[in-house]
């Protein structure tokens, strides 16, 4: 079991570690972050900030703290890249909301630390458990803006980001089941819920891409039919003109014959 736990832990860390890079590359390639919801990214950053705060306050394993730091740092990179590839109009519209969100984030994390340090040893575990459920709720809430954003566009959204996230959550879920610790319940619920939501995102992206290909194919067929129809009309017009020219030639010949007969 220890070996399986170790392998699942390594796999989850690897998948979580590379989750962001396909999306970063997609934004760089498209020079756009249109397919990503800023509210989803901000909520993910908030959840990772709380997770980092909780891991430090609860003095969890150093690897968990390092992983939380990594995720929080990558969230900040994500936000910077998202804003970098946005239009000035969008930035002007969103700037006040970003300031409010950052202020709330700082106040919330400071408040959590004050509550934690003012609690006695008996309440620390309870505070940690509450923090875990709050973090779980924010992680789940962060999927909602992105799912709603899928109805607008999927341009610039990397499907690999969600595939790696599903694989990371699946590995982590297996690790939690093996540990069989009741305190892991929030993370078990979170992992299952995130897998379901991310699978929905993946299938939506695949469906929209397939549907768009079908639309493009249909449009190309319609264009081809229109061109064929136009060409056939042109051919008919040319044939009609040829017939008119032939009739005129016949009339001219007949007139010439009549003129010759009159002369005779």
Protein architecture, described:
The chain has helices spanning 2-18, 20-30, 38-57, 62-84, 88-118, 121-149, 159-179, 185-263. The chain is an all-alpha fold and 264 residues long. It has one domain (2-206). Helix 3 runs parallel beside helix 5 (88-118). The protein is elongated and about 130 Å long.
Defining key terms:
0% strand, 264 residues, 8 helices, 88% helix, mainly alpha, elongated
What is the topology?
Layout: H1 2-18, H2 20-30, H3 38-57, H4 62-84, H5 88-118, H6 121-149, H7 159-179, H8 185-263
Q: How many strands appear in the DSSP assignment?
A: 0
State the end-to-end distance. 121 Å
Which parts are unreliable, with pLDDT below 50 for 5 consecutive residues or more? none
User: How many discrete structural domains?
Assistant: 1
Q: How would you name the oligomeric state of the polypeptide chains in this document? A: single chain
SSE order in H/E notation?
Answer: HHHHHHHH
SS content category: mainly alpha
Which overall shape is indicated by the principal axes computed on the Cα atoms? elongated
Helix amount: over 70%
| Strand residue percentage | under 5%
**Overall average pLDDT:** 80
Q: Tell me about the largest β-sheet.
A: none
Tally of helical segments: 8
The radius of gyration computed from the alpha-carbon positions, rounded to a whole number of angstroms, is: 33 Å
In short:
With 264 residues, this protein is mainly alpha-helical.
